[in-house]
Write a structure and sequence with these properties.
The protein folds into 2 domains: about 70 residues; about 45 residues. The protein contains 8 helices and no strands. About 10% of the residues are buried. The mean pLDDT is about 80.
Length: about 140
């Protein structure tokens, strides 16, 4: 029997959440997939995701997916991040306790590098670091 939480969510809303959690779509893509082409799909999706019943369903579904992945022995981004953070914390404790040494520092650097890569922070958009040349007489803006 469906709980009150589940009854509060329409079939389309469940499909929307599943598209995000299970299919890995971003919220705008998921909104368009389920509700069709609309103006400002990201804004509409954001508004929908703020509803408590939708948020609860998303959290429950995410937990179920994570539990299934763990049961199958699947390596997820979250699991990888947890292990890398553990290595980073351990290395930082070693630095505090034993001082600076090459292997501990290497552990910190490798963990940070791997975490940055895991979350796509290793390739910033080129415009962030692109040099800007300002010719004499031009404004800096």
């Amino acid at each position: 029997m469906a709980t009150a939480k589940e009854r509060a969510i329409s079939v389309k809303q469940k499909m929307f959440v599943r598209a995000i959690v299970c299919e890995g779509m971003n919220q705008g893509e998921a909104y368009i997939k389920v509700f069709g082409e609309v103006k400002f799909p990201d804004s509409r999706a954001s508004h929908l995701l703020k509803k408590a019943s939708i948020e609860n369903y998303k959290n429950e579904l995410s937990q179920k997916m994570e539990a299934q992945a763990l049961a199958k022995g699947v390596w997820t981004r979250e699991i990888a991040a947890q292990h890398l953070l553990w290595v980073l914390d351990l290395s930082k404790k070693d630095l505090e306790e034993f001082g600076l040494n090459r292997s501990t520092l290497a552990g910190v650097m490798k963990s940070v590098t791997a975490l940055n890569k895991l979350y796509g922070l290793d390739n910033p958009p080129p415009e962030i670091y692109a040099p800007r040349i300002i010719f004499k007489g031009e404004s800096k803006i």
